[in-house]
UniProtKB/TrEMBL annotation:
It catalyses: L-seryl-tRNA(Sec) + selenophosphate + H(+) = L-selenocysteinyl-tRNA(Sec) + phosphate. GO terms for biological process: conversion of seryl-tRNAsec to selenocys-tRNAsec; selenocysteine incorporation. The modification N6-(pyridoxal phosphate)lysine is found at residue 293. The lineage of its organism: Bacteria, Bacillati, Actinomycetota, Actinomycetes, Kitasatosporales. This is L-seryl-tRNA(Sec) selenium transferase. The gene is selA. Pathway: Aminoacyl-tRNA biosynthesis; selenocysteinyl-tRNA(Sec) biosynthesis; selenocysteinyl-tRNA(Sec) from L-seryl-tRNA(Sec) (bacterial route): step 1/1. It comes from Streptomyces chromofuscus.
């Protein structure tokens, strides 16, 4: 703490904290520095000023020396004019909603770059006439889900449900179990979404038990369809009963199943997670899902199922407002036809391999004098998928102060706090990012060492 005397000229001489703060370069002086001035022309003055202020704050707190403010500000600048920053996901949540859920594969990223210029998104190059938008991506989607006679893509999972409800049930009833009237992240409630389309909700059964007879008793001339929703972010256990899609197919109305997570086929590690192929084979008329969850692709909403219903949905006027752009189509097709996605790799990572990586990194960082150790831990799927499922994992355990410093460093690393330590879980960190992760840890100043 800086101590001053009443009437004195200011802080005591020799006060290291005050001296350090006085030596921090002024903002206007830093903005005239050649590298930062050039960056201001490239990225905009506001972006550079934000980096300068962040570096100055690090100097005030003693994390860096005043003479390092300019270098730190340059390091904090984003590589592009976009406001989003690339981060390393060390949270242990494979599909972290706040971090954009699925990471695109290398093939998908290349496809996006290729599609950034003029493309044949709605043109048949052989005939020179207009063609169906996204036709190759839709064909790839049907190839992955053989039981789907038709497919359609919109801009997210909620949009898929909105389009189906509007096209098939506006002014009609949607029959749904009380136990599936869910709320997902950020206060988003499914009933509110469905009612906004002009449909009426007909709730049946109870929170924990809904039978086929409950659905049958509610169906009448005003029924648009029966809706089954996977309660993806919670589980009801104990005295429960839920009718599956196969049991509802004989009720005389379409059965729409929202599987949420985007799993196209059964997954050995997630046996309780519903998938599109199984639901359609069981008799579902339409299946809706998200593309940026377990599928591991870009944000989009997938619709799969019967051709006649899909025609009614895809030709509804609202479909135009919810359509995806060419970049999403390119990324989706590359995800469907390309090599293993980062999501699939993260789910399949062997715990022993993760622990070996953590031990190797801990040994290297420990040799640099950093207080770190490798620990076993548990990761989760995230993104509203596989509630209650934990994945054995391994992490670097660091002092708690590393959490904030790593989030705000030149290469942002987002971990989690657990038992007073900052854990950097490797489950969702690709092996090729291990050295970047290590360098980010090394870059965190050590106040005890005076740097």
């Amino acid at each position: 703490m800086v101590v001053t005397r009443t009437g004195s000229a200011g802080p005591r001489r020799g006060d290291d904290t005050t001296d350090r703060r006085r030596r921090i370069p002024r903002t206007d002086a830093l903005l005239r520095e050649a590298r930062l001035a050039e960056a201001a022309d490239r990225l905009g003055p506001a972006t550079v000023k934000a980096a300068v202020r962040q570096a100055q704050e690090q100097a005030r707190q003693g994390f860096i020396a005043p003479e390092d403010v300019a270098d730190t500000a340059v390091a904090l600048l984003p590589r592009t004019t976009g406001g989003l920053r690339s981060v390393i996901n060390a949270t242990g949540v494979v599909l972290h909603t706040n971090l954009g859920r699925a990471s695109l594969s290398t093939a998908a990223r290349r496809a996006v770059q290729e599609a950034a210029g003029p493309t044949d998104v709605e043109l048949d190059l052989r005939t020179g006439v207009r063609a169906r938008r996204g036709r190759t991506a839709l064909a790839a989607l049907r190839d992955r889900v053989p039981s789907a006679a038709a497919a359609h893509v919109v801009n997210n999972g909620a949009a898929a449900l909105v389009l189906v409800a509007t096209a098939l049930a506006a002014g009609k009833d949607i029959v749904i179990s009380r136990g599936e009237m869910v709320e997902i992240g950020d206060g988003f409630r499914l009933p509110d979404l469905l009612v906004s389309t002009g449909a009426r909700l007909r709730e049946v059964g109870t929170t924990n038990r809904t039978t086929v007879a409950d659905y049958a008793a509610a169906i009448g001339p005003e029924t648009g369809f029966v809706l089954k929703v996977h309660p993806s972010n919670f589980r009801i256990t104990g005295f429960t009963r839920a009718a599956d899609a196969g049991e509802l197919t004989g009720l005389g109305v379409p059965v729409v199943v929202d599987i949420g997570s985007g799993l196209l086929g059964p997954h050995p590690l997630l046996p309780d997670e519903p998938d599109a192929e199984t639901q359609l084979r069981a008799g579902a008329s339409l299946v809706t899902a998200s593309g940026d969850k377990l599928l591991g692709g870009p944000q989009c909403g997938l619709l799969l199922g019967e051709e006649e219903l899909m025609r009614a949905v895809s030709r509804h006027p609202l479909a135009r407002a919810l359509r995806v752009d060419k970049l999403t189509l390119a990324a989706l097709e590359a995800t469907l036809t390309g090599p293993e996605t980062p999501t699939a790799a993260a789910l399949a990572a062997e715990p022993a391999v993760l622990l070996a990586r953590a031990e190797r990194l801990a040994a290297a960082l420990g040799a640099d004098g950093i207080d770190v150790r490798a620990v076993e831990c548990a990761a989760t799927v995230g993104g509203g998928g596989a509630p209650g499922v934990t994945l054995p994992s391994a992490a670097l355990a660091l002092p708690e102060r590393y959490a904030a410093a790593l989030r705000t460093g030149p290469v942002p690393v987002v971990g989690r706090l657990e038992a007073g330590r900052c854990l950097l879980d490797l489950r969702a960190v690709p092996p090729e990012d291990d050295e970047r992760l290590a360098e980010a840890v090394r870059s965190v100043p050590d106040p005890a060492a005076g740097r």
